[in-house]
Amino acid sequence: MQQRYVGNSGLRVSSVSLGTMSWARETDEQDASALLRTFVDGGGTLIDTAASYGDGQAEAMLGGMLGDVVARSEVVISTKAGLATSDGRRSVDTSRNGMLSGLDASLARLGTDYVDLWFAHAWDPNVPLEETLSALEFAVRSGRARYAGVSNFNGWQTAKAAAVAGFRWSRTSRSTPSCTAPRN
């Protein structure tokens, strides 16, 4: 499978990612395990998950497979924080506390000390953008995330994030409306 760089970073990932949004809901552990092994055997490396997928159960399922089905070193784990659904209602919390608590919970579910890519899952009109971006930067500086960015931001939101973060940060974390865009 073809490998590509994520944005302008040095991180290489497979050109196709394995999404886990249906894991622990429509996809049981046996099928997810077979999907993961087949994906990695086919040259895939990028696994996309999120704290909100199955209320964290997709991350927990993936975490249970690391070491047994695939080695942690074989995959690039991408996860997201800041979006939750309870009682059928979507809530967004990209505050520093919400984001970093979400990251720590994701790391525990995944059974790893770091994620390769970590994203703010959605725009939060109630939290200053600077606060959200500072949480992303802190996660990278603390070693809990190798790279960070934004997900599900529209064009003006992404442009504002890049302007607020400054050129240095925006060159190491590229974002698009739904996922990281590997460069050709």
Description:
With 184 residues, this protein is an alpha/beta fold. The protein has one domain: Alpha-Beta Barrel (TIM Barrel). It is 36% helix and 22% strand. It has six helices and ten strands; from the N terminus they run E-E-E-H-E-H-E-E-E-H-E-H-E-H-H-E. It has helices at residues 29-41, 57-65, 96-110, 129-141, 155-165, 167-172; strands at 3-6, 12-14, 17-19, 46-48, 76-81, 83-86, 89-92, 115-120, 145-150, 182-183. The protein has a five-stranded parallel sheet. Strands 2-1-10 form a three-stranded antiparallel sheet, with no helix packed on it. Helix 2 (57-65) runs parallel beside helix 3 (96-110) and helix 3 (96-110) runs parallel beside helix 4. It is globular. Mean pLDDT is 89; it is low at 167-184.
Draw up the topology in text:
Layout: E1 3-6, E2 12-14, E3 17-19, H1 29-41, E4 46-48, H2 57-65, E5 76-81, E6 83-86, E7 89-92, H3 96-110, E8 115-120, H4 129-141, E9 145-150, H5 155-165, H6 167-172, E10 182-183
Parallel strand pairs: 3-4, 4-5, 5-8, 8-9
Antiparallel strand pairs: 1-2, 1-10, 6-7
Helix pairs in contact: 2-3, 3-4
